[in-house]
Amino acid sequence: MAESSSALTEAVFYILLSLGQPLHGYGIMQRTEELSGGRVKLAAGTLYGALTTLQDKGWIEPAGGEGRRKSYRITPDGRAAARAELARLRELTHNGETIIGGWTE
Amino acid sequence: MSGKETKTCFKSYAAWQYQEEEDWLNKMASQGWALERTNGFVHHFRRCEPGAWIVRLDRPAFAMSSPEGQEYLAMLHDCGAEWVGGVNGWIYLRRRADQGEFSLYSDLAGQEHLLLRARSQMLLALALAFVGWLGMLTLALCSSESFMAIYPVLYLSIFIPVAYGLTRLNRRLKVVRRERQLHE
């Protein structure tokens, strides 16, 4: 389970979203860029560090690979973490729309 | 194209100057000299279109010969980056500028970790220098020659640049950490 309710980084959230199907590092970068409409470009160092941490937490797992390229996929714990983050984002959006939407200047 | 096609420069930077070193290598690229091979001191360049390459330095948390390093290299290769050399845990990478902006850390956490790894390297160097200084001090104290006393004093000058470098790294760490309180 996701043991903490603190916010996930944007990189981590997009990595989890990308790994509904097994992908290797570069595939994750491409998928993230595609999902975010080109806004989020994961750099290799950032991605590699996040993949290591996510594996240690058991949120993703290796899914084979060819040669030096390892593929990864999301685990049930990873899905739980992504769902928890989505709930947090919904709360943020709701509060933001309610309060900011009421601002007149 | 006329003139020399290759050039070799001898230049060394300390661990806390990795940003300055990266800036110099990119300035060389903007002047039409692409870094082709380096060991951190001897830099070999080849003529290129001005600004055709972007160079980045990195200090991964693992050895590049390890499985982690090999996987990281494969990822960099997939992104179009080329490994052009390495020294003391630092690696030199380049990518063609027409492939777009080339950065290795797209988040502040990654930038902070790189600074921390550079600082750890400096602290280790400082510890080794201190052991060397203690050895020299012991020799000076045990020696009957009074001129031996000058060596430990001279040796102390090694600590000045290291202390300066640590201060600069700590200042940059503080900036990144402050920024992390606001942004990712």
Structure commentary:
In chain A, 56% of the residues lie in helices and 14% in strands. Chain A is of the alpha+beta class and 105 residues long. In chain A, α1 (10-18) packs across α2 (25-35). The longest helix of chain A has 25 residues, at 76-100. Chain B has 184 residues and is α+β, with helices and mostly antiparallel strands. Chain B contains five helices and six strands; from the N terminus they run βαβββαββααα. In chain B, the strands form two sheets. In chain B, strands 1-3-2 form a three-stranded antiparallel beta sheet. The A-B interface holds A 9-11, 24-26, 29, 40-49, 52, 67-70 and B 58, 60-61, 68, 70-76, 78-79, 81, 101, 103-107, 109-110, 113-114, 184.
The appropriate CATH architecture of chain A is Orthogonal Bundle
Please, how many helices of chain B? 5
**Average pLDDT reading of chain A:** 93
Order the strands across the largest sheet of chain A as they lie in space. 1-3-2
What would you call the quaternary organization?
heterodimer
SSE arrangement of chain A, N to C = HEHHEEH
Sequence of strands across the biggest β-sheet of chain B: 1-3-2
Topology of this structure?
The complex is a heterodimer of chains A (105) and B (184).
Chain A: H1 10-18, E1 23-24, H2 25-35, H3 44-57, E2 60-66, E3 69-74, H4 76-100
Antiparallel strand pairs in A: 1-3, 2-3
Chain B: E1 6-10, H1 18-30, E2 33-38, E3 42-47, E4 53-58, H2 67-78, E5 82-87, E6 90-96, H3 108-142, H4 150-155, H5 159-180
Antiparallel strand pairs in B: 1-3, 2-3, 4-6, 5-6
